Every structure is written in C-alpha cells, then in structure tokens.
Amino acid sequence: MTRLAASDLTLAYDDHEVAAHLDLEIPDGEVTVIIGPNACGKSTLLRALSRLLRPKSGSVLLDGGDIHRLPTKEVARRLGLLPQSPIAPEGILVGDLVARGRTPHQRLFQQWSRADEAAVLDALAATGTEDLVDRAVDELSGGQRQRVWIAMALAQETDLLLLDEPTTFLDIAHQIEVLELVTKLNRESGRTIVLVLHDLNLACRYSHHLVAMRDGRIVANGTPHEVITAERMHDVFGLDCIVIDDPVAGTPLVVPMGSAAAVAPASTGSLV
Amino acid sequence: MSVTAVGGTTRVVRAGVLSMRVDVRSVVVCVALSSATLVVATWSIMVGDFPLSVRQVLSAVFGDGGDDAEFIVQTLRLPRALTAILVGAALGMSGAVFQSIARNPLGSPDIVGFQQGAAFGSVLVIVTWGGSSLAVAGGAVVGGVVTALLVYVLAWKRGLSSSRLVLVGIGIGFTATAGVDYLITRADIYDVQRAAVWLTGSLNGRSWDHVRTVGIALAVLAPLVIVGQRALDRLELGDDTAAALGIRVDRAKLGLIVLAVGLAALAVAAAGPIAFIAFVAGPIARRLVGSPGACVVPAAFVGAFVLTVADLAARRVLAPTELPVGIMTAVIGAPYLLWLLTRRARTGAL
Predict the structure, then answer these.
(1) What is the average pLDDT across A227-250?
(2) Computed over its alpha carbons, how large is the radius of gyration of chain A?
(3) CA nearest to B296, candidates B98, B12, B33
(4) Closest by alpha carbon to B251, among A89, A72, A108?
(5) pLDDT at res. B349
(6) Where are the alpha helices (DSSP H) in chain B?
(7) 8 Å CB contact of A73 and B246
(8) In B314-347, which positions are buried (b, 16+ CB within 10 angstroms) versus exposed (e)?
(9) What is the DSSP letter of B156?
(10) In angstroms, what separates the C-alpha of A125 from chain B's closest C-alpha?
C-alpha cells in the first residue's frame, strides 16, 4: 500500500452526496493528476485526501492510519496542501508568507528555529523567489504569486504535496512555469505530488499517473497513455476528439473535433 | 542568547532551544503609545473643578498628598482614568480579534451588535434584580455571549461569510437596542436613571469596583488572546490554508470568539457600550505597526490611548459640563465609518 490512499470513500456536503465508494492509491514518489469535467468531485476528493473534508463513510489512509485519527499538526508535517484560492493578507511580505509554512514545526516558545530558517531559504530557492522576499504579495504578478504560495507549502517540508488547480487564472507561459516547477520538485527531492488540473494536454505531459473522474466516480486510473483515448474522452467529457502523440513530449495530445474543422480549409483558401 | 534579523523589522531572539520572533516596530509603537497614554491620563487627573499640579497628582497616587488631593485622586479621578485605560485596551483587543476573524473592519463588536447584546444583558439585570456591579458584569457577559452565538448561528452557511456576519450582526444589534428600550419603559424610575447613565457609555463616577472588573478580565483573557494570535494570523490565509498548516480551525475560531466576547462584554459592564473604540483600534494599530496580522497587542494600546484622550476631551470641551465619553468616541469613529463605507461601496465589498 502507498503512503496516501482512499478506501471506500463516500463524500458529501451536508446531505448532498458528491462522490461514492472511491478507492484510490496515490503512487509514492510520482506526480498524479486528477482530471474531469466541472463539478465531477475532483477538488472534493483532494480536500478529503488532505483531511479538510471529513468523509461520510470510508477513510483516507496516511501511512496506513486513518487521517482523521492523527493529530492535525502531525498530518501537517507529512502532507502539505495548497487550496484553490488561498488569501494573502493585505500588505504581507513574501518572506513572512513563506515563513507561515513552518507553522506545524513550531511551538509557542519555538517560533523560529534554525531549521525553520533553513527550510524557508530552501523553499525560496527552489521556487526562484529569493529576490521577492521583501516585496508585498499584493504587488506580484499571478505567476510570481503562485510560486510564492508553492514556496509556502514547500517550507512545510512534507513528502506529500497536494495542489488544487495551481494553474487557474495563469496565462499559458506561467502555467508551464508552475508545472515545470512541480516536475523539478518531484525529480529532485522525490516528493509525491497530487494536482487537480483542467488542461488535459498539460495534465498528460506533466503527470506519471492520471485519475479521470466523472459524476463522483473514478472512471480511469493509470498512465496518461492508458487513460487518454478518444473513446474515453467522449465518455468522460462528452467531447469528440482525436488523440495524437504530443510532438515534443510524446505524451497523448487531445485535439477536439468541433465544427471549426469543417470550415478551416475554406477560410484558409479565401485568405490566400 | 542571540538576536538575528529576518526581513522587515522582525528580529529573532534565541536562547537554547527557545526562539521568539519579535517585531521591533510593534515594540516601539507599544512603548510610545503607553507613554503617551500615561501623559494624557496624568493630565486628565490634574484638570477639573479642583486643579492639581503634576507633583500633587504623583504624591497623591502614592498616598501622601494631603487629604483633599488624596481624596480627589484616589477616589474620583484615578479610578476613572484607570477604567478608561483598561476598558480601551479590552475593547481594542476584542475589536482586533473580531475584525481579523471576520476579515472585515466592520466585524468589530460595537458594529455587529455584541456590545448592544451585552448592554441588554446588563440592563436586564439592573431592571429585574437591581443587582450589584458583579451581577451587572455577569449580565453583560451572558448577553454578549448569547448575542455572539445567535449572530454566528444565523450567519453560518457552510462556513462564515463576512458580509452575512456584518449584516446579521447589525440586525441583531438593533434588536438588542430595541429590547433595551422596551426594558426601560417597563422599569421603575430609579433603575431607569441608573441604566440611562450607564447606557450612554460613560466613565463618570467610576470606582475601584469598575477598575477591578475590567482589570481582572484583561489579566485573564489578554494572555490567552496573545497565545491565540498565532492561530489568528494563520486563519487570515483562509480556513483551508490554516487547516493545511495544522490549525484546528473551528476550535481556534470558537476559542478566540469566546475570549473576545468576554473582553468586550466586561468592558461594557464597566463603562457601558462605548462605541467605535473596538472599531478604530485595530485598523490604526495595523497602520502604525505596518505589518499584516491582527496586531492584538498594539490594538489594545491604541484602544487605551484613544479612550483616554476621548475621556479627557469629553470632560473639557464644554467644561464645566461633562459629556458622556461615548459622544466623543462617536465624533472620532463616525467619520471613519463613513469613509470606510464609501470606499468599500466603490470596490463592491461590504
């Protein structure tokens, strides 16, 4: 069994059931990406995996034990999470924000050990945000801000790191920047990383392992090549497409059909 | 022991395995504010129908200033000045906690009805039992806690939305005020007089009883709030982020709310529902300290300073007539409230 796993997990908000009877093992030391249409329960699953949502039944197992029976501070030393829209307090400096990642390692009279200092410096270096330390988080660009939040989660020094849609609201260049960073963190320190992503092609390129969800169920679970087929894209997203090999990475590349395909040759012709 | 700089004005003091983060600028702000408060408080003890010199005040405080001066200082003016300082500190700290939890400057206990609820509790005790000052304090705490629970239950919808909290709180505040009016019409005239003076938020005729009420409240609750500030700072990153960092979000919030309601309610028990101190102290403290975070300690010092100044002004602007201090704090707070509302109306946030 892997370090983080879900067993017969049923999730609900109040009485509204979002996902039922999920079984999942997150492969250790790999990047796992959860994909699926809007409201399929992927963010809910991530919240449950990070003990933010108490399951209605079933359990999330961290190192073999029920995550809700472990002290939350102990969980925070093993598993980090970056929620979808964290709030940066007005005027907070990058250095202060990243330092807050050390919370689970601190005590009332141990507020800033040398280990805390070293972890924050490492996190800043890993995310390339050293030069931003004295800047206010409000003044940063979207991409810089996302790197700073990731630095905060890194400063927590957990082997497991969960990121909920870390590329939302970023332009394509910044999306790539964030995902390259994720890959680097996985390769250089062997961290297990779980992401929720919307862009299928980026999900294929940057994951070892894909989990496809629809209507609160896990539809497919495996390598990008195993999971991404034209037929399955139709089942999961209701999308007509062809799947080719990404010319750069060799990973699956989803090309939607749509009606534009039919008119493209004509319009090209008229332009020439 | 060693001291190292870690960005901004924060320094780290280490001794063995212990280490503390200390913000130099907060310390300077607190020292400056407390000195200023002491100066104003001394001045406020000097002036009045029977003026005293600095030397007379100081010797009377330490008990050898001659009978008249000693009576005036020890029985009349010193308890009043101390009540102002302690009530201001309690309201300032309470306001900073609530504003931080609500993530909204309008979340302070004087705006969202907790102080009105505490006032209702006190007036109920005065009118029904005519109680001692201890019973009145008890009434204020119960009134404040019940109001807070009511506001949070009504504003809770899968988490705490700050605009719902503010709107529900203002509604409950009006209800509590209406309740107070109703009690007043039912009460006998002696109780009404006692309640009315107290309701305007007044520091007139404060005795050592009042100093004791709010002094004990601060001594017990303030250290717990200071311990809770760590959780409060993390909660400002959002509930999910705080939980991911290992904070027990619901427990931390509940604990902080109970502490802050306690501070506000006991301040109300001692000096009536003085408006706008809790409301302005937090934002002023943040501005002075120049760092994010709830600044609960600087807010307490700001509250003490502002209320001491307001009390001196209330006594002196129309001398020999003394105004209730609540009128002076409204003069400071109301324009700030209007400014905040227009600014927020423009950005679309309540």
Answers:
(1) 93
(2) 20
(3) B98
(4) A72
(5) 54
(6) 24-46, 54-61, 67-71, 78-102, 114-128, 133-155, 162-186, 189-199, 208-235, 239-244, 249-271, 277-289, 296-316, 325-347
(7) yes
(8) bbeeeeeebbbbbbbbbebbeeebeebeeeeeee
(9) B
(10) 16
Q: What is the pLDDT of residue B346?
A: 65
Would strands A160-164 and A79-82 be described as parallel, antiparallel, or unpaired?
Answer: parallel
DSSP three-state, residue A21 = strand
Residue pLDDT, tens place only, B122-165? 899 888 887 777 788 889 889 998 998 898 888 877 666 777 88
Q: Do A103 and B247 touch (CB under 8 A)?
A: yes
- pLDDT confidence of residue A18: 92
In order of A115, A129, B25, the CA distances from A122 in angstroms are: 10, 10, 27
Instruction: Please report, as a single letter, which amino acid is at residue B291.
Output: S
Q: What is the mean pLDDT of residues B50-71?
A: 82
Tokens for B317, please give them: 């602007």
Q: What average pLDDT does this structure show over A168-173?
A: 88
- CB of B224 closer than 8 Å to CB of B254: no
B246 burial class (0-12, 13-18, 19+ CB within 10 angstroms)? buried
Chain B CA closest to residue A112: B19
Structure tokens at A19: 């996902």
Whether the Cβ atoms of residue A103 and residue B246 lie closer than 8 Å to each other: yes
CA B128 to chain centre: 27
Interface of A with B (CB under 8 A): 13-14, 47, 50-52, 72-77, 80-83, 85-93, 95-97, 99-101, 103-104, 108-113, 117, 133-134, 153, 156
CA distances from B256 to B61, B93, B226 (A): 36, 11, 10
CA angle B99, B104, B105 (to 5 degrees): 65
State the pTM of this model: 0.89
Among A87, A132, A139, most B C-beta atoms within 10 A, so best to mutate, is A87
Beta strand B10-15 pairing with B18-23 = antiparallel
Residues of chain A with pLDDT > 90, as a percent, come to 81
Max Cα distance, chain B (Å): 65
Instruction: Count the alpha carbons within 13 Å of B63 in the hemisphere toward its beta carbon.
Output: 0
CB B161 within 8 A of CB B285: no
Beta-strand relationship, A217-222 and A209-214? antiparallel
Q: Tell me the C-alpha distance between B5 and B10, whole Å.
A: 6
Interface ipTM = 0.90
